[in-house]
Automatic annotation (TrEMBL), chain A:
Alphabetized UniProt keyword annotations: Heme, Iron, Membrane, Metal-binding, Transmembrane, Transmembrane helix
Species the sequence originates in: Novosphingobium indicum
Stored PANTHER family: CYTOCHROME C1 (PTHR10266), CYTOCHROME C1, HEME PROTEIN, MITOCHONDRIAL (PTHR10266:SF3)
Annotated protein name in UniProt: Cytochrome c1
InterPro entries: Cyt_c-like_dom, Cyt_c-like_dom_sf, Cyt_c1
Primary location group: membrane
Transmembrane segments: 251-269
Cytochrome c domain span: 62-169
Record's subcellular location: Membrane
Keyword check for Isomerase: no
Database matches in Pfam families: Cytochrom_C1
UniProtKB/TrEMBL annotation, chain B:
Gene: fbcB
Taxonomic source organism: Novosphingobium indicum
Description of how the protein assembles with itself and partners: The main subunits of complex b-c1 are: cytochrome b, cytochrome c1 and the Rieske protein.
Keywords, alphabetical: Electron transport, Heme, Iron, Membrane, Metal-binding, Respiratory chain, Transmembrane, Transmembrane helix, Transport
Residues of the signal peptide: none
Protein name: Cytochrome b
Length: 278, 427
C-alpha cells in the first residue's frame, strides 16, 4: 500500500516535470533566445597581479600609499570609504603625525565646540572617511541619477574584484562599430560611458583616470593611467580586508600545527588498531 | 548498553564512586563514547562523518556566540556591525570567516553523512528513528543556515529572504497572510531581521537537543556497518574508546586541516560577492542565488515552469522542494529490501552511482546557475530522476532485486572466517 502510494506521488512529480520540460524544450527549439549586446560584448576582467595575491601575499605599502593618493585626489570626490578610519592608515606605513595631518585635511560632520550645533569640523584620526554627499538623493542629483557606490568593500563585492576595478578603470573605449551594427538599440545613451567590463556595458561614471600624470606620485613612480588604476585597486584590496596579511600568516602557523597534530593522531590511530584487523 | 559483552563502568576512585551514586554522568559518558559502547570493528571512513558533524555544530555555536556579542540585529547598522567585527574586534575576522565557512563545512559533512546512509541503508530497521531524527536535524540546519545568511543584511541576505519567504505566498488561501505574519511586514525589514536573529540563536540549541536524541536512538541498536550484517558476537565489535576515539581523532585533524585551509586562504570563495553590498530594496541583483548547500533544492523549485492542471507552477515548485526532503522521512518504508548495504545490492548500487549521484551533481550545478536554458532543462531531467529514484525505482527495485550473498558475520567479513560461528545457533 505504502509503495503504491509512493509510486503515485512519484508519478505526480515526474509527469509534472515532464510537462514543464516538454514545453520548455519546445520553446527553446522554436524560439531561440535573442542575442544581447551584454552577452556578446561584456568582457571578463583582465589578468593582473598584485603583491597581496597568493598564499604568501603581502601588501606593498609603497603601492598602497600611491593608491591612497589616487583615492584621495580622484575617487573621493564622489565615492565614500565609510568603513575605513583615518587611524587605519597607519597600517600603510604613515606615522602618527602624518595620519593626523591627513585627517585634518578632511572636514567631517561634528559639533561646533562653542555653539553645540552640528558643523563640519577638521577630521581627527579616530574619524572615518567622510561621505562626499549628504545622502543618496544628493548623490543622484550630482551624478546623472546614479549613486557612486561606497568603495570600502568594492574588491570583495565583485567577482574577481581587484582585477575588475583595474579593468574597469582602464577599460573605457569607444563603442565598437560591430556592436552598433548588430545592436543599434544598444547605443550608449547620452551621459553614460561605454565600458565592456561593466555588467551592462554603459556606466554613469566618466573615465576618472583621464591621462598620464593626473596624480603626482611622491616616490617617483610614473603615474600612467595603467599604474594609477593598479595602485588604487591594490589600495582597495587593503580597504576591503586590512587583515589579509595577518590572515595568511596565521594560516600557515595553523596549518603547520594541524599537520603535526594530525600526523600524531594518525600514528596513535595506527598504534591502537595494530592488534585489530578491520 | 546494547550488547551483553559491553564493558561495565567500574569507578575505582572514591570520588568517582560517590559521583556514580549521586549523578552517574561519568557512567553515561563511558557507556556513550567510552569503553562501554561496543562498535562494529569494520566501519570505514564514511562512518567518521557523524563525529565530524558534531565538531561542526560545536564550531558554529562557539564562533556564533562570539559573533553575536558584536552584532546588532537592526537594519540600519547590521551590515556595519559585521564589518566592525571583522576590522576592529580582536580576531573578529577569524570568527567571522570560521562561522561563515563553518556553515559550508557543516553541510559538506552532513551531505556525506546522509548519502552514506542512502548507500548503506542506514535508515532501515532497527534504525528508523535514528534516521527520522537525522532528517529533522537536517531541516533545522537548513532553517538555521537560511536565517543566519540574512543577518549580515547584504544584498543576497535581503533578496534571498524575500524569495524564500515569498515561497509561502504560493500556498493557496493562507499564503499571503502567512508570509506577512512570518516577516512581520510586507517585505523583509527590521521585524524580520530581528526575529531571524532570535531564531538563529535559538535553533542551534534545538539542534543540540535533537542530536542528543539522534545519538540516544543510535545507541539502542548500535551503529550499522558497511556489510549491513548486524553484530552477532563480541569479536564483531571493538569498544568505542580507544578504537574509534583514535580513528575519529585523526579524522578531526584531517578535517580541521582542510577547514583551516579554506578559512585562511579562500574565505570568500563560497560566498556571493553581492553580500558585501549593503541590502538595497530598490535594486534587485542580476541573479538571486542562495548559498551553495541549498542549490539542489533551489534547482528543484525552479524546475517547475508550467502550471500542472489546476496547480500553479510556483506552488508545484514549492511542493516539490519541500517534498524532496520530506520523502526522506518515508525511506525506511519505501525500501523493502532485507539487505541493508548497497555493496550487496547490485541493482540498487547501479541506480545509486549512475542515477542518484549524477542527478544530485546536476541539481547542485543548475541551482547555482542562472534560471535560463539549458540549465532549466537539465534541472528538470535531474529533478525527474530524483523523484523517480526515491518514489518509484527504490520501492520496485527493492522488491525484485536479488541481493548478493551476505557474509555470516562482521568477523567473517573481516577475517575470512568466524570461529564463534559454530557456537552460535544457526538462524
Amino acid at each position: 500500500m505504502a509503495r503504491i502510494l509512493s509510486i503515485l506521488v512519484g508519478l505526480f512529480f515526474t509527469v509534472a516535470l515532464l510537462w514543464s520540460f516538454g514545453l520548455g524544450f519546445y520553446t527553446w527549439t522554436t524560439e531561440p533566445a535573442a542575442a544581447t549586446a551584454e552577452h556578446e560584448f561584456h568582457l571578463h576582467p583582465k589578468n593582473v597581479h598584485f603583491a597581496s595575491d597568493g598564499p604568501f601575499g603581502k601588501f606593498d605599502n609603497q603601492q598602497l600609499q600611491r593608491g591612497f593618493q589616487v583615492y584621495k585626489e580622484v575617487c573621493s570626490a564622489c565615492h565614500s570609504l565609510s568603513h575605513v578610519a583615518f587611524r587605519d592608515l597607519e597600517q600603510l606605513g604613515y606615522s602618527e603625525a602624518e595620519v593626523k595631518a591627513i585627517a585634518a585635511g578632511f572636514t567631517v560632520p561634528g559639533t561646533d565646540p562653542n555653539t553645540g550645533e552640528s558643523a563640519m569640523v577638521p577630521g581627527s584620526p579616530t574619524d572615518y572617511f567622510p561621505k562626499p554627499f549628504a545622502n543618496d538623493i544628493a548623490a543622484r542629483a550630482a551624478n546623472n541619477n546614479a549613486v557612486p557606490p561606497d568603495l570600502s568593500l568594492m574588491t570583495k563585492a565583485r567577482h574577481n574584484g581587484p582585477a575588475y576595478v583595474y579593468s574597469l578603470l582602464t577599460g573605457y573605449r569607444d563603442q565598437p562599430a560591430e556592436l552598433l551594427k548588430h545592436f543599434p538599440e544598444a547605443k550608449t545613451p547620452p551621459g553614460l560611458h561605454y565600458n565592456p567590463y561593466f555588467a551592462n556595458l554603459n556606466l554613469a561614471m566618466a573615465p576618472p583616470l583621464s591621462g598620464d600624470g593626473q596624480v603626482e606620485y611622491g616616490d617617483g613612480t610614473k603615474s600612467t593611467v595603467d599604474q594609477m588604476a593598479k595602485d588604487v585597486a591594490a589600495f582597495l584590496i587593503w580597504t576591503a580586508e586590512p587583515t589579509l596579511e595577518k590572515r595568511k600568516q596565521t594560516g600557515w602557523a595553523v596549518l603547520g600545527f594541524l599537520l603535526f597534530a594530525t600526523i600524531l593522531g594518525y600514528m596513535s590511530y595506527r598504534n591502537i588498531w595494530s592488534d585489530k584487523k578491520h | 548498553m546494547s550488547f551483553p559483552w559491553a564493558n561495565e563502568y567500574k569507578p575505582s576512585h572514591p570520588f568517582m564512586k560517590w559521583m556514580d551514586e549521586k549523578l552517574p554522568l561519568p557512567r553515561l559518558v563511558y557507556n556513550s563514547v567510552g569503553g562501554g559502547y561496543p562498535v562494529p570493528r569494520n566501519l570505514n571512513y564514511f562512518w567518521n562523518f557523524g563525529f565530524l558533524a558534531l565538531i561542526c555544530l560545536t564550531i558554529q555555536i562557539v564562533t556564533g556566540i562570539v559573533m553575536a556579542m558584536h552584532y546588532a540585529a537592526n537594519t540600519a547598522v547590521a551590515f556595519d556591525t559585521i564589518e566592525h567585527t571583522v576590522r576592529d574586534v580582536n580576531w573578529g575576522w577569524l570568527f567571522r570567516y570560521a562561522h561563515a565557512n563553518g556553515a559550508s563545512a557543516f553541510f559538506v559533512v552532513i551531505y556525506i553523512h546522509i548519502f552514506r546512509g542512502f548507500y548503506y541503508g542506514s535508515y532501515k530497521a532497527p534504525r528508523e528513528m535514528v534516521w527520522l531524527l537525522g532528517v529533522v536535524i537536517f531541516l533545522l540546519m537548513m532553517a538555521t543556515a537560511f536565517m543566519g545568511y540574512v543577518l549580515p543584511w547584504g544584498q543576497m541576505s535581503f533578496w534571498g529572504a524575500k524569495v524564500i519567504t515569498g515561497l509561502f505566498g504560493a500556498i493557496p488561501l493562507v499564503g499571503e497572510p502567512l508570509q506577512q505574519w512570518l516577516l512581520g511586514g510586507f517585505a523583509p525589514d527590521n521585524a524580520a531581521l530581528n526575529r531571524f536573529f532570535s531564531l538563529h540563536y535559538l535553533l542551534p540549541f534545538v539542534i543540540v537537543g535533537v542530536v542528543v536524541l539522534h545519538i540516544w536512538a543510535l545507541h539502542i541498536p548500535g551503529s550499522s556497518n558497511p556489510t549491513g550484517v548486524e553484530v552477532k558476537t563480541e569479536s564483531d565489535t571493538v569498544p568505542f574508546y580507544p578504537y574509534y576515539i583514535a580513528k575519529d581523532g585523526w579524522a578531526v585533524g584531517a578535517f580541521a586541516f582542510l577547514f583551516a585551509a579554506a578559512v585562511f586562504f579562500f574565505p570568500n570563495s563560497l560566498g556571493h560577492p553581492d553580500n558585501y553590498i549593503p541590502a538595497n530594496p530598490m535594486s534587485t541583483p542580476a541573479h538571486i542565488v542562495p548559498e551553495w548547500y541549498f542549490w539542489p533544492f533551489y534547482a528543484i523549485l525552479r524546475a517547475f515552469t508550467q502550471d500542472f492542471f489546476f496547480i500553479p507552477a510556483k506552488l508545484m515548485g514549492v511542493l516539490a522542494m519541500f517534498g524532496a526532503i520530506l520523502v526522506w522521512f518515508f525511506l525506511p518504508w519505501l525500501d523493502k529490501s532485507p539487505v541493508r548495504s548497497g555493496s550487496y545490492r547490485p541493482t540498487y548500487k547501479k541506480f545509486f552511482w549512475f542515477g542518484l549521484i549524477p542527478a544530485m551533481a546536476v541539481l547542485f550545478y543548475c541551482g547555482g546557475a542562472p534560471a535560463a536554458e539549458p540549465y532549466v532543462m537539465f534541472s528538470q531531467i535531474a529533478a525527474l530522476y530524483y523523484f523517480a529514484h526515491f518514489l518509484i525505482i527504490l520501492p520496485i527495485v527493492s522488491a525484485i532485486e536479488k541481493p548478493l550473498p551476505l557474509p555470516y558475520s562482521i568477523t567473517e567479513a573481516v577475517l575470512g572466517k568466524d570461529d564463534g560461528a559454530e557456537l552460535a545457533p544457526t538462524a
